[in-house]
Amino acid sequence: MKSKFKKASLLLTGIMVGGKLFAQTPDTTMADKNYVQPFSHGGLRTWSVGIEGGVLTPYTIFAPSQQDYRSPHQEFGYSGYIKDQILPDFGIQADYLGGKVSGAITQADQQNGTYSGFSTKIRYAVDLMATFNIANIDWANKKSFIQPYVSVGTGELGYTATVTNSNGTFTGNNQHDFYIPVGAGFKINVATGINIDLGYQVNFVNNDNFDGTVVGGNNDRFSYGHIGLEFALGNKRKPQMATYNPVNSMRDEYLMSDQRLQIQLNRERNANERLRSDLNTTNANLAKLTIDSDGDGVPDVYDKCPNTPAGVQVDGAGCPLPVKKPDVKVYVTQQDREVVNEAVKNLEFDFAKSTIREHSFESLNKLATLLVNKGFNLKLAGYTDNVGSVAANLKLSRDRAEAVKTYLAQQGVDPSKITAEGYGKGHPIATNKTDKGRQINRRVEFSIY
Fold first, then answer.
1. How far apart are the C-alpha atoms of 268 and 362, rounded to whole Å?
2. Do residues 437 and 386 lie in contact, with contact meaning Cβ atoms separated by under 8 Å?
3. Looking at the predicted structure, is the pLDDT value of residue 100 above 90?
4. Which band of pLDDT confidence, cut at 50, 70 and 90, is reported for residue 1?
5. Interatomic CA distance for residues 349 and 364, integer angstroms
6. How far apart are alpha carbons 69 and 21 in whole angstroms?
């Protein structure tokens, strides 16, 4: 039995010592959910709870030859704890342990055949321990995958021992003593905030009566090998401090600062490219504003009359200015006035109509010839007598003036040189009380210039 415990202890110790070789998670990204700003623990989960089960035995790796009972038994033990990880490598935890420790001595080791076995019930074992994580600092890894640790503390143990001897089985009184737990182990991170806890703990009791038997001058001790689960408390999005690597966070901070500078540089470069593109567009637009294909002094973008011949003066829209014609003085002779007077004298219309009577055509033809030959302008003003409404007379006067204009245009006179207006019964030149006076007032006046 001793050989089995020795092998198990050596195996566990080897695993803890070798944990350094595979205790880190490879660095795959510069910054992820495990990143926390260096020296700022506000983003970490420090509290955790654990539940464990394992084997209790009086055999320990410390001076096994001094044990009171040389044939240790293995009994089931259970425990739980709450822990505050103060620093990445240091934490304080409160533990509770329960179970039973038992053992026997061989027939050859019995002293006068007095004792043959014991069984001690642990009613409670509470302690406060300091734990130290090791091998969790590395430049190139984000967090610890395996965290080896050692622990030491102090607490109080309540127990009841039952011994068996040649006289029978006897149960002692409830006892309580001071004890010192010393342990080592490692935790395996299996999920965010969840760790498997494998450990071995030796408990040094401050009494030699833990097994109900006082033999020699050595205090009793017992060991507890356990496996369990640890659960981090708090916001699941925050990493657990126990697996946090502060040195790697410093490296991340350096890399992130470099990345931020690169991002800022890229933004500035992109902004400069946009400015350069805008400047090129502006220069192209400015070039369009200065292009003057026909050389008339007006840029094409404003030139409404492109391809103006060279030397032609243009206005602000690029269109040729009108050629100023020389002033031509027109002289009206007495003979010209007689032609006009004759046309006026012979002009007659049908009653209440704008139809020119046929005997007026001869004098109007002479007037047309005069206007064509000398380029005179002609103003026609139509009037009526006072018989009828104002509107009817006004319309009739206009119609008669337009009738004369139409006739002259038909004879070749430029209509743009003829102005025809009607004034109705306004501006009479004779009385409207007599037939003769009204006849005089029904007229079309001619003016040449």
1. 93
2. no
3. yes
4. very low
5. 13
6. 38
CA distance 278 to 331: 67
Q: Which amino acid is at 41?
A: H
Distance CA 244, CA 195 (A): 13
Q: Six-digit token pair at 366?
A: 């002479």
Whether the full predicted model's pTM is greater than 0.70, yes or no, is: no
90-104 and 378-383: which strand pairing? unpaired
For β-strands 378-383 and 418-422, DSSP reports them as parallel
Q: For 322-352, write each residue's pLDDT tens digit.
A: 876 666 666 788 888 888 888 888 888 877 8
381, 404 contact by CB (below 8 A): no
Place of tokens 């030959």: 373
- Beta-bridged to residue 171, according to DSSP, are 162
SS3 sequence, the chain?
CHHHHHHHHHHHHHHHHHHHHHCEEECCCCCCCCCCCCCCHHHCECEEEEEEEEEEECCCCCCHHHCCCCEECCEEEEEEEEEEEEECCEEEEEEEEEEEEEEECCHHHCCCCCEEEEEEEEEEEEEEEEEEECCCCCCCEEEECEEEEEEEEEEEEEEEEEEEECCEEEECCCEEEEEEEEEEEEEEEEECCEEEEEEEEEEEECCCCCCCCCCCCCCCEEEEEEEEEEEECCCCCCCEHHHECHHHHHHHHHHHHHHHHHHHHHHHHHHHHHHHHHHHHHHHHHHHHHCCCCCCCCCCCCCCCCCCCCCCCECCCCCECCCCCCCCCCCCCHHHHHHHHHHHHHCCECCCCCCECHHHHHHHHHHHHHHHHHCCCEEEEEECCCCCCHHHHHHHHHHHHHHHHHHHHHCCCCHHHEEEEECCCCCCCCCCCCHHHHHHHCEEEEEEC
